[in-house]
């Protein structure tokens, strides 16, 4: 059962202060710690910080309480349980997504813009996307914006001539493309040393090939030079493949 937040005094997050400080003009006693209000938004913010760097398995009520300088009981004054926090994190992520204008009259350019926009937004904090894999999202985590975005994308795909079923398929492909690309290709590329980035998309890294000279792999050696050098270049090919698929669907009608 949810804990009501109405008529409930906010908990306080205490931060350290210097006991030797003189009283301020506000009359605060020397040594009294500065305080911030503990809110649901503050709990969600801290959860995002932890999950963004360590993954959602690191998010526990005890960890949140310790990081925020309060007791676990203080957290429960604002949220029912960890699941409620996860739902609110998911809702925050969905609500932060921005969808560009979708022009069915120039659908090829719109697909390029839409895919690129979503990819760049997810690329900023790719590990947060793992919430959809590592956690269970309940109906309470559903944002009205998520429904509106789904409707907007389906409308675009049907307006360019796809059936509703084909539109649902394209939407799933879009989400798969941008989610997986941000989590794997972009994350791997962005976190490599600058001098190693041109090797990220080689079928087999050159040092690995050199460790196994007995393996006959002429094409793999040749691919060291032929493979794409950046995640941007690879993503362009992903988008063009989707456009080609839509063209094929439309041509079959």
From TrEMBL:
Ranges where the HTH tetR-type domain occurs: 37-97
Alphabetical list of SUPFAM superfamilies matching this protein: Homeodomain-like, Tetracyclin repressor-like, C-terminal domain
Polar residues compositional bias, start-end: 1-27
InterPro entries in the cross-refs: Homeodomain-like_sf, HTH-type_TetR-like_transc_reg, HTH_TetR, Repressor_TetR_C, Tet_transcr_reg_TetR-rel_C_sf
Start-end of DNA-binding region: 60-79
GO molecular function terms listed in the Swiss-Prot or TrEMBL record: DNA-binding transcription factor activity; transcription cis-regulatory region binding
Spans annotated as Disordered: 1-35
Name of the molecule in the record: HTH tetR-type domain-containing protein
């Amino acid at each position: 059962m949810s804990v009501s937040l109405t008529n409930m005094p906010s908990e306080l997050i205490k931060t350290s202060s210097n006991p030797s400080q003189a009283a301020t003009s506000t009359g605060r006693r020397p040594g009294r710690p500065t305080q911030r209000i503990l809110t649901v938004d503050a709990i969600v913010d801290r959860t995002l910080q932890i999950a963004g760097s360590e993954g959602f398995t690191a998010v526990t009520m005890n960890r949140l309480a310790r990081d925020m300088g309060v007791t676990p009981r203080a957290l429960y004054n604002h949220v029912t349980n960890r699941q409620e926090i996860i739902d609110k994190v998911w809702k925050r992520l969905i609500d932060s997504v921005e969808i560009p204008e979708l022009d069915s009259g120039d659908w090829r350019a719109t697909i390029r813009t839409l895919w690129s926009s979503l990819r760049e937004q997810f690329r900023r904090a790719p590990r947060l996307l793992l919430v959809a894999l590592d956690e269970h999202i309940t109906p309470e985590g559903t944002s009205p914006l998520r429904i509106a975005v789904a409707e907007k994308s389906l409308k675009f795909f049907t307006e360019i001539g796809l059936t509703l079923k084909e539109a649902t398929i394209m939407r799933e492909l879009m989400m798969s493309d941008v989610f997986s690309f941000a989590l794997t290709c972009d994350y791997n590329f962005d976190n490599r040393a600058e001098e190693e980035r041109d090797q990220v998309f080689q079928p087999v890294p050159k040092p690995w090939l050199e460790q196994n000279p007995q393996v006959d792999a002429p094409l793999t050696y040749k691919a060291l030079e032929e493979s794409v050098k950046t995640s941007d270049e690879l993503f362009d090919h992903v988008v063009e493949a989707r456009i080609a698929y839509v063209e094929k669907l439309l041509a079959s009608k």
